[in-house]
Amino acid sequence: MENYVCFYTVTPFWAGEAPNINNLVSKVNTFSDSLFTNALSKIEFEYENDEIYFAVCKDGLIMTKIKKLDYQKEKIIKRDVKNGNIRFIEEYLKYLNSIQLILSSALLKKEAHGFLQNFIIRTGEAFGLSIGDGGTASGVPRGATSYYFHGRYLCYYRCDLPINVDDRIFMRKPIQEEVFKTCFEDINIVIKDIKAIQILSQLNSALGEYKSLNFRQSLVQSWCIVEWYINKMFNAYLVRRNIKNQDSIRDEIDTAFKKINFLKDKQIILDKESSKMHTIRIKRNGDLHDFFSSDKKVTYNDCTDAFDLITDLVKKEYGLDLQINYGLAFTTL
What we know:
- By secondary structure, this protein is of the alpha+beta class.
- It is built from 14 helices and eight strands.
- A six-stranded antiparallel sheet has the order 3-4-5-1-6-7.
- α5 (84-111) packs across α9 (194-211) and α10 packs parallel to α14 (300-318).
- The model has no long low-confidence stretch (mean pLDDT 88).
């Protein structure tokens, strides 16, 4: 029995070419649930190496197996009997959110499409799937994407309407194999580095808040990433130069403001980067210290500036070229 952790993106898609609607309708007309379900749940693209199994089904279900994490599951649970299972799920969600971010980036790079909306994959969207000789056993997503999972089964469609007018069929756009190949290649740039996974997961969360027009929370989450890079570059410089009295220097240069200026003076970061860091820092501080002020609102541009800086830092640190869709998707009230 093989176990996988799966999710759907909040924007539905077909993996590869869209299925022939007439063929789907004919499967419905035979009143055979299995024929219809098999057509939508067929694994279309499949990639695997020592670190990860990554597959995409026709209806856009993404199946994953993070091998190192799966191998450590029992150890994680035994180490903390009370909270071990929660910690395991928490770690898996970081990988899933990173994968979703990389997939949306790959789509922009290969097809110049931004229709995949970033959202935060939580416990309601991720679910387990087991496949063995005896068949398939599946959990059920409880979040917004459960609608697409139910679309695999005829019993969840209206009997009084043709199936091809259901939005789970006609609203999907196809994503070609080249996108998933690029996604898998980019995943493998960072898959071995847990800190990179944490950063990408945090960035996906910041993007999710941004897409929900929660600009304040988005900027706070972005600043956490920027501040981590500032501290990393600052500490790395002290170690690399074998500077004496490092503790006293850290005591003296003890704020983000001082560290940014220090890094700029040492030409570790460019003037443009230091300026962006200061702008984000000031906005974040002003917002947190005067949360209800109407004069210091975080804007759309503040968030996109933060994302631009983070993607530059990610490329410099890991060699991963991330493309981000800044478009906002919302209905007019």
